[in-house]
Design a protein that fits this description.
CATH topology of the largest domain in chain A: Rossmann fold
Structural class of chain B: mainly alpha
Strand content of chain B: under 5%
Number of strands of chain B: 2
Strand order of the largest sheet of chain A: 6-7-8-3-9-10
CATH superfamily of the largest domain in chain A: P-loop containing nucleotide triphosphate hydrolases
Distance between the termini of chain A: 33 Å
Strand order of the largest sheet of chain B: 1-2
CATH superfamily of the largest domain in chain B: MetI-like
Largest sheet of chain A: 6 strands, mixed
Radius of gyration of chain A: 25 Å
Oligomer: heterodimer
Number of domains of chain A: 2
CATH class of the largest domain in chain A: Alpha Beta
Helix content of chain B: over 70%
Shape of chain B: globular
Largest interface: A-B, 25 and 17 residues
Radius of gyration of chain B: 24 Å
Strand content of chain A: 25-35%
Number of helices of chain B: 14
Number of domains of chain B: 2
């Protein structure tokens, strides 16, 4: 029952202002795709266009080789879980879940069988006679998912479904969604602005920004080899550190990066594809800048101004001599204090270069 | 400092002060007249001397009065003509105009405009429409070569014509109240229904109607209460004629009380009208509660 979906030259404009411009990509069968981006990037609009709830200004959507965008929402064989669940308040849970099946005249025995199956999977059998108002947030969430499941659609759409749950429930439901995907084995498209959800759930992430797609890739690709400076800065917490590069030198076909605050950084980035005569920026994640052991030679030195202890690791905010601030990581076992002078070492394999067009260049292997 | 639950005397008095203005209006303009009216309905009174207690006499006189019984029937019939039409047309308009476009805003204004007109203006407009030979309806009928209907002078049409004018006049309030109710319904419910393949009719019956039940009850009860008090339009358009076919209870009360100075009987008729409205509104409330 799973479907592949193809988006071709999709454009959306409201009253002359473009929200999405010429979007092209393909979603494979049984894939869990996550649309990730800052608010206002058009990720929800894109999802709603696939559902048919939003008109298309230009372009086409295809599903399993059939044109989708000319069909009414109900005929697309797609189920959607809404951000606010959109449960029908005057119907019981059971009626909510079977409403769609009844509307297409499904046989009663089939309806009952699917209802009990979905209720069993989601453990909501005891709630079937209740009204949505009598349910907790998490229970409503389950009913909304149940309503999507009973229709046995070719694709599930989720519009920020966890944003109304508290933190504990959110991480539990996240795991359950991943398990649900394994169980129903159907194409799922999921919109979120939460990168943890995106990283943990997605087979592939589509990063949207500024009317278009910044990058499509697996969570690891997105994290380790961001295609643009935007992706590098958007994904990952804390945000990546950026430095202005003064000079890039070639050394055995690899780039040696000069930065005011650091000793030369012998990166593994190939100089072959690197544009010449451009200003570059270098990016390094906090976990790739380590606090040097005492007495150890380091690439840069600075003063600790703030320490954030997260338990498993410690983030250290360091002010360099130039006044530039960066975030580095230290083992949680290290004893560090504010105002302490420390040395910093950069992992040469994990630095990224960004050119003036914010295109990224990476070294090392994935 | 006083605890949040027990108020100091001073606070209690200042709270009381705030509700005093309305309390005075309520006591002297609503509660007292109501009981004074009940008291009067058991008396034989005119405006010149003290009354005399005569028990249920005014009521038995009323139920022997053929004209009064006819006005009761006329008024009930009028309510049956107007209230369902007002609710249904009001809901239809509210749904048709439930969009944030300029045209819809302007049209809402236009349909609401009639509500703010005085009854005198309304009847004037509709008399011009209904006037035989030169009126608007007469012109329309001539166009289609139909026999003109004597709207205001035919016993069959007089009350219906008043009902038509009243629906036009009173449509604004149901429309606005129902529009407000429709706008409270979350948009994503309709989107979910779209994905659930619900037809327009199913969506209306299963989502729209249940969501606005409270407002529908409110609108119906308001209109029942208002339309039972038919007076101005009937007085000015037909003066109750022809042959009392468009005479309403309130017109009967007015005639009895202020033309024939039979205050006791007028008061008794008022109590009966009060009871009818109370029963009708309560019945409507119970019926819709049962359904909900």
């Amino acid at each position: 029952m799973a479907a592949s979906i193809e988006i071709k030259n999709l454009t959306k404009a409201y009253d002359g202002s473009t929200v999405l411009n010429n979007i092209n990509f393909q979603i494979n069968e049984r894939e869990f795709i996550v649309f990730l981006g800052p608010s206002g990037c058009g990720k929800s609009t894109l999802l709603r266009m696939i559902a048919g709830l939003e008109s298309i200004s230009d372009g086409e959507i295809w599903m399993d080789g059939k044109r989708l965008d000319t069909l009414a929402p109900g005929h697309r064989n797609i189920s959607m879980v809404f951000q606010n669940y959109a449960l029908y308040p005057h119907m019981s849970v059971e009626e909510n879940m079977t409403f769609g099946l009844k509307n297409i005249g499904t046989e009663k025995s089939v309806i009952e069988q699917r209802l009990s199956e979905a209720a069993r999977i989601l453990e909501i059998e005891h709630l079937l006679k209740r009204k949505p108002a009598e349910l907790s947030g998490g229970q409503r969430q389950r009913v909304a998912i149940g309503r999507a499941i009973v229709r046995e659609p070719s694709a599930f759409l989720f519009d920020e479904p966890l944003s109304n749950l508290d933190a504990a429930l959110r991480s539990r439901t996240r795991i359950e969604l991943a398990q649900l995907h394994q169980r129903v084995n159907t194409t799922m498209i999921y919109v979120t602005h939460d990168q943890v959800e995106a990283m943990t759930l997605a087979d592939r992430i589509v990063i949207l920004n500024n009317q278009g797609i910044e990058q499509i890739g697996t969570p690891i690709e997105i994290y380790q080899r961001p295609a643009t400076k935007f992706v590098a800065g958007f994904v990952g917490s804390p945000a990546m550190n950026f430095f202005d590069v003064t000079k890039v030198e070639e050394n055995n076909n690899k780039a040696t990066i000069h930065i005011d605050e650091f000793a030369p950084i012998h990166s593994t980035i190939s100089t072959d594809g690197l544009p010449v005569e451009q200003r570059f920026e270098m990016g390094v994640r906090a976990e790739d800048i380590l606090i040097a052991e005492e007495g150890e030679e380091a690439h840069a030195y600075g003063k600790i101004i703030f320490i954030e202890r997260l338990g498993d690791r410690t983030l250290v905010y360091v002010s360099l001599a130039s006044g530039k601030m960066l975030i580095a990581e230290a083992s949680s076992k290290r004893l560090l204090e504010n105002n302490q002078q420390v040395g910093l070492n950069v992992d040469f394999n994990t630095v990224h270069l960004f050119d003036e067009n914010e295109k990224a260049y990476h070294g090392g292997e994935l | 400092m006083s605890s949040p639950i027990t108020l100091s005397n001073k606070e209690r008095w200042s709270n009381f002060l705030f509700i005093t203005p309305y309390l005075l209006v309520f006591i002297f303009m609503i509660a007292l007249p109501l009981f004074w009216g009940i008291h009067l309905s058991f008396q034989k009174v005119d405006l010149f001397g003290p009354g005399k207690f005569i028990g249920w006499n005014n009521y038995t006189r009323l139920f022997d009065n053929k004209i009064f019984l006819q006005t009761v029937w006329n008024t009930c019939y009028f309510v049956l003509l107007t209230v369902p039409a007002l609710v249904v047309i009001g809901l239809g308009l509210a749904m048709a105009l439930n969009q944030q476009t300029r045209t819809a805003n302007i049209l809402r204004g236009v349909f609401f405009a009639s509500t703010i007109l005085s009854v005198t203006v309304v009847t004037l407009i509709w008399r011009i429409i209904f006037i035989p030979n030169d009126g608007f309806m007469a012109m329309v009928f001539q166009w289609f070569n139909l026999d003109p209907i004597p709207f205001l002078s035919s016993p069959d049409w007089a009350l219906k014509s008043i009902a038509i004018a009243t629906i036009w006049w009173c449509l604004g309030l149901p429309m606005i109240l129902l529009t407000a109710a429709l706008q409270q319904i979350p948009k994503d419910l309709y989107e979910a229904a779209q994905l659930d393949n619900a037809s327009k009719w199913t969506t209306f019956r299963r989502i729209t109607l249940p969501s606005i039940t409270r407002t529908l009850i409110l609108v119906t009860i308001i209109e029942i209460v208002m339309q039972f008090q038919l007076f101005g339009q009937a007085l000015l358009m037909t003066n109750g004629g022809p042959n009392n076919t468009s005479r309403s209870i309130v017109m009967f009360i007015y005639d009895a009380g202020f033309r024939r100075w039979d205050i006791g009987m007028a008061a008794a008729a008022s109590q009966i009208l009060f009871l009818i409205i109370l029963v009708a509104a309560f019945a409507q409330f119970m019926i819709s509660r049962k359904k909900g």
